[in-house]
Design brief:
The protein is mainly alpha-helical and 261 residues long. The protein has 2 domains: 42 residues, no CATH class; 190 residues, Orthogonal Bundle (Cytochrome p450-Terp, domain 2), CATH 1.10.230.10. The chain is built from 13 helices and 3 strands, in the order E-E-E-H-H-H-H-H-H-H-H-H-H-H-H-H. Strands 1-2-3 form a 3-stranded antiparallel sheet. A hairpin with a 4-residue loop joins strand 1 and strand 2. Helix 3 packs antiparallel against helix 10, helix 5 packs across helix 11 and helix 6 packs across helix 7. It is globular. The N and C termini lie far apart (65 Å).
Length: 261
């Protein structure tokens, strides 16, 4: 029996000889000079007209995720730019490869846990089960803890304050994060800060961003931050310094010495 494959379609963009259309909006007549980047991005990603609350939350999230100093992503960008200054986009893309489950992109990991808590018949019990699971694995719960910001991550609590003050948000995911925070503290026996990506997971979920695409928002935001790192690298280079520092700090050990207990 032959299988008839459905022809793929796209609803994102089309064009004629004289026009371009983003979804149902004419690029020239409806968007250029009339809509912000955030409005068009949300329209394209979510497939609907964004509400004012969607724009406020997205803007603050993009600002929060843009920069965090000389992190692995920024270092990668600077080193690649030092090696190939003619390839700005390659340097930015190198840094974006560091947006993952350990740095910057951890909101996706946390959001998956919030999905579980919301879907569970007993949210408190589910939160406790998650906290105990990570305790047994001796791993941090995604969205919690920070090596620099202690006792609290100020970004996270400002994000949550903004979210709680928004009357147009349901608050389900913020409450799920709060339930998980309570369980994490109880299992640890001490307060563990909610970090920025944990709060981002809750807020993006509140505006109906699916868990599976949340990391894309980190990619968009961090790309802008990495361009700024390249601008700084052009005027005040640090790539060679980073290379020299690492080369001096990590000594060579012969294989015979390395094998000794």
């Amino acid at each position: 029996m032959s299988t008839i494959k459905k022809t793929p379609t796209t609803s994102l963009c089309t064009h004629t000889l004289s026009s371009l259309t983003y979804r149902n909006a004419n690029l020239v007549d409806d968007l250029m000079g009339k809509a912000t980047f955030t409005e068009v991005m949300l329209m394209q990603v979510l497939g609907r007209k964004p509400r004012p609350v969607d724009l406020r939350i997205t803007d603050v999230v993009l600002i929060v995720l843009m920069e965090h100093g000389l992190t692995p992503s920024a270092i990668a960008t600077r080193l690649i730019y030092m090696s190939a200054p003619e390839n700005l986009q390659g340097a930015v893309s190198a840094g974006l490869l560091a947006v993952g489950s350990s740095f910057v992109g951890t909101m996706e990991n946390c959001s998956g846990l919030l999905d579980r808590i919301i879907a569970a018949p007993d949210s408190q019990a589910e939160a406790m089960e998650i906290a105990l699971h990570y305790k047994a694995l001796k791993l941090p719960v995604p969205g919690f803890g920070h090596h620099l910001h202690k006792p609290v991550d100020p970004r996270a609590y400002k994000l949550l304050e903004i979210g709680r003050d928004e009357p147009d948000l349901k608050g389900d995911r913020i409450r799920a994060l709060e339930a998980l925070s309570k369980a994490v503290d109880e299992v640890a026996g001490r307060p563990i800060t909610i970090n920025a990506t944990g709060a981002v997971a809750a807020l993006l979920g509140e505006i109906e961003v699916p868990t599976a695409i949340m990391r894309g928002f980190a990619v968009v935001s961090r790309a802008a931050g990495l361009v700024a790192h390249i601008v700084e690298e052009q005027h005040d280079p640090s790539g060679r310094f980073i290379w020299d520092t690492v080369e001096k700090a990590i000594p060579f050990v012969s294989p015979s010495e390395a094998d000794k207990p």
